[in-house]
Amino acid sequence: MHKQQVKGTIRRTLTAVCGSMLAASSWAAGVAQSAVPKINDPARGWDSLWHEVIVDITIIGILFAVVTAWFVFSSRRTADNQVGASPKLTAASAVGWTVLPIFIFLSIDLYTAANGWVLWNHYRDVPADRLEVKLESGMYSWDYTYPNGVRTQNELIVPAGKPVLLRMTSRDTLHSHYIPDFRVKEDSMPGRVTYLWFYPTKPGEHLVTCAEYCGVMHSYMAGRVIVKSADEYAAWMKQEETQLAAANAPAEAGTPAAKPAAKPKKT
Ligand SMILES: [Cu+2]
């Protein structure tokens, strides 16, 4: 009796200690996560899902090849003029041979589909801290406009370490803005705004191409994403802003000068 009471006390103490440790670790994990905002880059999820699909279909392919080879071997002719006879399956084995493969295939399909759905939601979940650029596509160019009015054509220049959101539309027909390295592709179409986002982490250049047949020059509709370091990007943007201001200056200076000329003459 006394031993049972001691055992009970030890069990309760262990449960309480383990529970406290779990609570403390999850609290610490929560604090760590909130302190450093983590960007859930869908490109990495895309890669791991692709890898998973390749592994799955390889295993299934090998499995079916082995089973088929076994059937071919076990059903081979063993004597001259042998007449084959198919074995009668019992009801249980007939159902087993039908249901089990279906169950295996459907389980893998459903599992992959569920992972694909989670990944798709990551693609739609744009980080709040981002660079937002407008894109107008047209036969045959990609025209980007930055928030400060700076424009580029066929070259999207972005800083490393910041997610980039493209809000896209088209001035003529259907195009598809495809950046293979960042695992993103989204249609741009007239009369509608679509979006995609990607996360460049280090300086480099990446191909942009149109993934929707849009006309005879479709295959020439290529561009680049140029990822610069944060400092280089800031310097480039400053230079572009200066050029933009200089280009707009004559028009702005001309506006007040035109006002007196517009005054009606006193008679
Ligand atoms: Cu196109």
Distance between the termini: 120 Å
Q: Which structural class do you get from the secondary structure elements?
A: alpha+beta
Number of strands: 10
Biggest beta sheet summary:
5 strands, mixed
CATH architecture of the domain at 131-247: Sandwich
What can you see in these coordinates?
- The chain is α+β, with helices and mostly antiparallel strands.
- Among the domains are: 42-72 and 95-124; 131-247, Cupredoxins -  blue copper proteins (Immunoglobulin-like), CATH 2.60.40.
- The chain is built from four helices and ten strands, in the order H-H-H-E-E-E-E-E-E-E-E-E-E-H.
- The strands form two sheets. A five-stranded mixed sheet has the order 3-2-1-5-8, with no helix packed on it. A five-stranded mixed sheet has the order 4-10-9-6-7.
- Strand 2 and strand 3 form a beta hairpin.
- Helix 2 (42-74) runs antiparallel to helix 3.
- The N and C termini lie far apart (120 Å).
- Bound molecules: copper (II) ion.
- The site of copper (II) ion has 6 residues, from loops.
Summed up, what is this model?
By secondary structure, the chain is an alpha+beta fold. Helix content is 50%, strand content 21%.
